[in-house]
Amino acid sequence: MTTSSRHPLKLALVAGLLGSTLFVTGCARGGGDGADTAYVARDVESLYAEAKRRLDRGNTRLAAGLFDEVERQHPYSPWARRAQLMSAFSYYTSRDYNQAIQSAQRFLSIHPGNKDAPYAYYLIGLSYYEQISDVQRDQKITEQAQRALREVDRRFPNTEYAADARLKLDLVNDHLAGKEMEIGRFYERSGRWIAAKLRFQNVVSNFQTTSHAPEALFRLTETSLALGVREEAVKYAAVLGANYPGSEWYEKAYELVGDHAAGVTAS
Q: Which domains does the chain have, with CATH numbers?
């Protein structure tokens, strides 16, 4: 997913996170602009404040390194917990999604019951979601996004994080259904009717609320006729007509059944 696909809720959630986190005002000591700033030893308040300043300026990658340094230099400080989650967010905004996931997972492994745990889970889901590729490519990341977003909804169903996760799950499911349709059409073109039919059945069974369901029912009508199971073809066409009566796919299925299965009733 591109940046433009991100839900506006993300910014509001981040603003709330930043607002609830204790920041120290004022300039950090020794805060030069060099890339090695993250490795300058300093007191925890100054180091955290410098990380915030870098984040506010849009230097997200360096900010992430500075937040990491808070934990490295002051692992037993209360600031370390805050820095872990802010590091994950900084990596996310710099589009280093794998590192964002690792940082958020580390936060959860150390602080599973923390009040900011819902945001950490949500950030993991977002980081997978932003990496979803087109349907021509392997969908492992899409499946990981689906699992992570479902986890947010399962654990925190009444939160705004879950509400946004559910919206994104609709898009993720549509993407996975699209991949199944692409593979099914390929098998169909190759005359591998049974393999094609299994893919289309998967869409109807597991992704019936997606935009691909009408075509999947038409393809099931088509493959059933190719396999000589005319009763099933009529059944799928009837289901298509009942659920999507105005669909172009129903019109095609109606013509197909009329040409090849006229007078046959669904079993």
A: 1-131 (1.25.40.10)
